[in-house]
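Example record

The entry below shows one chain as it appears in the dataset: sequence first, then structure tokens.
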Amino acid sequence: MANTALSKEECSLLKSSVANWFDQRNLISMIKVLYEELVTSKQDLHKSTTTLELINLVNTYKGFSQNDPSLLLATINVTGQHGIWNKIEKLKLPELRQTRTVSMFSEFRQKVMRLGLKMKACDVKRISHLYEETKFRKYEDSWSLIIDLEHNAHLSNKNMTRFIRTLSENSLGHLIYTIDGGEQQVDIVENRDFELPGTAIKKKALVVAVVIAVIAVVVITFITTRPIGGRPNAPTVTLLEQNLTSITLRIEDPEYTGDLDLIFYNISFKYESRGKDVVDFNMFDYKDKNDKDFQIYTIKELLSEKPYKIRVAGKNKYMLGYQSEELYARTLTEGREDKGENQTVYVNTT
């Protein structure tokens, strides 16, 4: 069905409603990723601070009519923000739900959007650690990371094969299937008004079958191609110092005779917050120095008054490595003694 024509006032009302929806949910970075190929001036794109500015930029560069809602409707479809329809319906605009096209966005751009929608916080941390330009930055969401990956040419249409290979080599295969469109997180449909009964069930069955086949291929490939050598043993970890907001650890290099080099240490720490267990982790590169067989590492910005339960694992290329025994430590305390299962830790308040 062709795009529904709106008056200038109706389109302006729709534009404001859509822009406010994304701004209220702090999704401005998502829109910047989506409009990356539609705005020639990257400086104008990235200095914009509201969704309305970005929409107006695209309309200016692409010459869209002020009465054409195509950009707004495609934005809703690709980002999967279908909850906005409840808000739009209250505007009582004519037959907009049937106008569903994403053709203005390239196939590559749709892949990037599927990647951003699928990535969890742990995926963002792991991917950012793979590149020098991003490894020391803290990202609020997947979209901020994607902006940097595209800026540094790690993620592009030309380098997509290399990027997918990097994901595969670092145990991020679940994102590859999403990029290829096997598990869409949004309803990307072009000019579809209805489906025959049972179509959705058949599609779900097909997706499940494809998922099982892909997982089997990935597992077999991993088993048959990875080098022999096992995983690094658990390192010995000692608590050196703790103060109000940080904990310093001494990590002795684990015994490891495998074929793959030790790449980094993964430090996981669990604590209680609002009655629930919270698990976070830090990663830092393994430094192979001949003059010592241990590493010193400080975990900063620890703000919980509850005890921290810490484990450390040395990881190789395939993210393999045994964890150390649990270590107990505490911050935001003054001279208080905290008894763990295996040791007693005295808080350093100097």
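Notes for this example: The two ends are 72 Å apart (CA to CA). DSSP finds twelve helices and nine strands in the chain.
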